[in-house]
Fold each of these.
Amino acid sequence: MAISLRGVSKHYGALHAVDGVDLAIPRGEIFGIIGHNGAGKSTLFKMMLGLVPATQGEILVGGASVTGRHFRAARRHLGYLPENVVLYDNLDGLETLQFFAKLKHAPMAQCATILDRVGLTHAGKRPVREYSKGMRQRLGFAQALLGTPQVLFLDEPTNGLDPQAIRDFYATLRDLQSEGVTVIITSHILAELQQRVDRLAILAAGRVQAVGSVEALRQQTRMPLTFEIEMIASDVPAALQALAPLATLAPESTPTGLRLQCPREQKMAVLGALATLGDRVRDIKLLEPSLEDVFFGFSA
């Protein structure tokens, strides 16, 4: 396992910021952690990085306990991008990476290569004070990649990035994953994570409410599927008649036909009923619950 947490808690007096968390994250996985503000995500990150001691429980990162004597060496193989990147405005982009490379004992030769990997070669000699928010974010990501980390911790990593930069960022993560790197990522933009993480944990009030792939979490919430059926208005009565035997459904008329929600186990029955209508059904859209729907289902 790249990361293992067993019974991990962090208490600040009566406040239980993290409360009895168990997690096991294998090597090479892109793992998301989502939750409301104050759910404990940042505290959990800081404990996994060894920056904040746990009140109780055990945390292993890269096989080393964060409280053990071997963690200092293991930490050289970690990369961290905090939510709020703080950089030195008077340094240029390349000098910034060289500064962090010295701190991490990373090869200086990596700096130019990583600057190119995040698309900042053209700005490498410009002072950071002239960087846009998105450029600062990419430079922050670049410093996290120094030292060829085996585990990456990324806290709200796409803040300030435009759509193309976000696409490039996740393409880089997939490349890193193919090299065996484990990625732990938090984001408030759930639509971004939905198709891009292998599994995720939903955190609320310091506790893990659920862990699994998006599809597995959909199954656990038992949220209904949504059908959008396109047909002309004169064919709607026939559709309602065909669906009538499925008594749990409550179809609604729309300007383009019908919309209905059904339990997941009735999906094939609905499709079978619609098939009897032949070409009177012009199109069917089947909508799964989004990650946002699933999140609110667990955290409400």
Amino acid sequence: MKLRELLDRIRVKYPEELQYSWDNSSLNLGDLDQDIKKIMLTLEITNRTIDEAVEKGVDLVISHHPFLISKLNQITSDTIKGGLVYKMIRNNISAYCMHTSYDMAEDGLNDYFFNLLGIKDREVLDVESSLDYYNEGKVYGLGRVAELEKPLVIGELISKLKDKLNIDHARYVGPKDLVINKIAVVTGNGSEFFQLAKSKGCDILVTGDIKYHQAMDALDLGMALLDFGHFGTEHIFSKSVYDYINSISGDIEVIISEKNIDPFTFV
């Protein structure tokens, strides 16, 4: 299949128009007329994952995080980003990135997070807009909010998420005996939304990258926060999008990167 046709299929369900203005959810690198025979899904595009793609004969890497989002002055083998671009061009590897367009979309990353918890009924936390041609004109936006069928104590929620996310650490802000009836989730860096979650009646916000002063403000507000880290809440991207990409790719082989790692080591 030509890259052009594959991207047209992806955009039907996950339009790039959903993304924030500062983002780069798009074809970051590639030839639209390239024949695609093998796709690799990954959270990040790094030297580690591109070496893996070269070794496995991958034509297209689909990542969550854009790898071209800031100014690039040099494309040379001895620079970090430039060297990565240079390596991908030399090995004829294209890169398509599904970032905030995927975060905001229905059946995107935030919905998948709730699916892991077995929560079916949810609504958008931070409504961005709506499009006549997308999802029957329903609103889209970042984060999800849901009422739990049965209340959960905080220890139960933490244990369940550690199991589903395969993460063994988290940071928690709030009372040790918290009982949760309503929950908000923003994968990645969603710490700025704790006040909005509180205003919608949520007992806790699950996200990553919470800063010290945000944690103190949340305590004063009486809002609990559960921080599984940026990697911890988003490394599930590849699994979350695998079935859809596989379903629209015909005979193209779709694999998941085995080289995604959390850059932080907890000591």
Amino acid sequence: MMQKNKGTIRRERPADYAAVEQLTREAFWNVYRPGCMEHYVVHVLRDDPAFVPELDLVLEREGQLIGHVLYMRAQLHTVDGRILPVMTFGPISIHPDFQGQGYGAQLLEASMERAKQMGAGALCIEGNPAYYGRFGFAAASARGIRCQGTPAEDPAPYFLCKELVEGYLEGCAGVYHTPEGYFVEEEAVERFDQAFPPKKKETLPGQLF
């Protein structure tokens, strides 16, 4: 268990699952789309072969669960025929009442350090470059790395990478393969969401979908 100024970070336990899914739903509702699917993604990723239990972490403040992140093992298929292991993370959730107070940074930095200690050489994610740039992430396209399904000519500024081990991605241009567990069906999301309290779906400025 890790104690920091703002909260306590520990591994998620089965008793936390429902609370974490509710937290994730609150954190992402109407952010990227009307409603959200991130809470269902968390639900299914725990049973995915690529899931990393040691990096399934919650953040507590005064006994209240206010944050969560999970990590997955992934692969980079290089142009010279190698398969390079990397990791990815997400969703990373902070309860709306505690956003903008540094809790996300605390959870991210602590989890990345744990990933490094476990031997992860690099991280690949899709995220806001303005936010994640603060933590050393940069456009993967600058290294010749693209996400599977993205045209080679697309700069994809939201597809980011970060070395945890210096030089790990040197000469590793290629294609990143997103773990299959992240691809969920809308119908399955809708069925899963029916178990939660009703919330209004809204179309808002800035949504991606």
Amino acid sequence: MRNEETHITAEKILNAAERLFAENGFNGTSLRHITDAAKVNLASVNYHFGDKETLYTEVIHRRIQPLNAARLAKLDQVIALAGDQPPPLPLVIEILVKPVFEMHQDPARGGQHIVKLIARCLTEPLPFMSELVTTEFQTTIARFSQAIRRSVGHLTPEDFMWRMSFVVGSMQHTLATLHQMGQLTRGICKSHDHEAALSHFVTSAVAVFTAPASPTRTSSVNASA
């Protein structure tokens, strides 16, 4: 019974911290805000997590670690089935983004709060998060980049990396605006339409990667010669 109560307390803290960190950021959220929202005392936070930095890291780790494990397991299966051929590009992109779309619409897995918080990790980097960002974000994106790269040999490394950045950034933007797509498009698109968003996203991402290589840039020195 004691272990169950301890687990429930830790979950209450994590859930409250997840929402508040997503809404206000790390610096805009105090431990007092979290304890008030979770209806626990400060000693409980110290007992379970030690400090705010550790709590912030654990909030993200508990969501992103299983997500990435599932992504990479599916990616390995697709690569194995493809053998010597490049794995199907639309399928690789779907494996990369679909779990995030599913998590976005599932409050039990963090919903919009955790997706917003993940975006904060990438756009508002914090020094103490560097290890987690490397192991859970950069490593996973690198694995998918390698798989995608096999289908787009016509792109230079620079061209490919720019396009990968655009695709990852557009995924964040899509999820951030999905709740108001009806308003933003004057009713042309529906708000909260995860299925349509995912389908259009995969199609668009494939088009980004398979478009002709970008023209070779002419340096300012050569242009003025």
